Amino acid sequence: MQADIAKILFPREQIAQRVDDLAGEIVRAYDLETNADLVLVSILSGALIFTADLMRRLPQPMRIGLITVSAYRGATTESRGARVLRELDVDVTDRHVLLVDDILDTGGTLRLVRERLLLARPRSLRTCVLLRKPSKAPIDLPVDFVGFDIDNEFVVGYGLDYNDLYRNLPDIGVLKKELYSC
Fold this sequence. Notes:
Layout: E1 5-10, H1 12-29, E2 38-44, H2 48-56, E3 63-70, E4 83-86, E5 96-104, H3 108-119, E6 124-132, E7 145-149, E8 155-156, E9 172-175
């Protein structure tokens, strides 16, 4: 798999340090020591690894909610429109919700899930993304916590995939262009 990577953007050590920093930012943003109503909602499958690492660094009890959304079906690098494949499995009504996603690109996935969550009337709703592409991210879509800003490159690893492959790479890298068609 490493031979398929054009360059490493973020090695595993840098990712771990940034996840630690994000956890600190989240703890400061919420009164988490006295608030047991936090729900982390992870958008699967891409945010699975990021969410697991992040939640282990948050020092209070919390609920975990999972929702499965697909926007990049099959061997493509272009979004085909986000659609929910598996609905949220936890009640978020009157709870603080932290929505966790792997990457903010065009915003279709994050916007879809955010709108669904708001219908459930959470006490608060904040968003956390591991990666954001500022050149493509909609300015009207609020993001409270960002791991890294990146250029408009196709990245894999640490949960991010191409055709359901490469999620298990421990680093985040740019996939060689000859391996996919734009």
